[in-house]
Amino acid sequence: MIASSAGFAAMAEQQCQQAAFLKQVAASFGKASDSYISAARLQQQVARDALAMLPAEANGCLLDVGCGPGWLHPEFSRYCAAFSAVDLSEGMLHKARTQQLATAYIQADAASLPLADRQFDKLFSSLMLQWCPTPKTALAEMARVLAADGRLVISTLIKGTLTELRDAFATLDQQAHIHSFLTADELITAARQLPDISWQFERRSYQLYYPDVQTLARELKALGANQVAGRSQSGLTGKGYWRKLAAAYEQHRCQDGIPATYQVLFIQGTKHGR
Hints:
alpha/beta; Rossmann fold; seven-stranded mixed sheet; 9 helices
């Protein structure tokens, strides 16, 4: 009985931590809704690469999970007859809603979609899954709302992302400064445990360049992508600290500037027909 009580307490604590992290993520992306598009160099490249994996057929209903400010929505007309948009952040949804292109704008956690089973013929989600505390649950929800013979395309950041920045921080302290991304194998295993979906996976590496580490940090903040689960809220304010960080990052400098590497897993699936 004691062990059981301890287990329930640990589970409740984990759920509270996950809820708090999701609240932070939603707030962070909400604050970035106006600056996101101009900073989203990687996000735009990855999203277009992911969208190209869907059949360019203007039929069926599509669900965009983690729609952000909706910058990609004008391109959906080539891939569906109608679409709905979901995001955790009300600020991002408000920005997307100004276009009035989707049939519905829904604020929801991807791990708990307020949608009927088998409602959509296609599902698209780009660089959202890495912010889900329980990605397997989010994948299951996305599979649930997909109709028989439906197609889904998901892109997500995986371990190895921002490794240069992580290494530079590690020379200064042992605090968590970079989000803890799952490995590709962990996500592939989670997806393959879900029934009724034929899966395909592809890993790609993207690299962006910056004049200095401060510019990289400002871009991450402008994207709202600067939340780290379990990180101390004390923050970094000292100029000396940033000088040391910049010096540690300099070992990666090349002709184009300092690089930031992003590792992306593309997940494609087709739901078995009935």
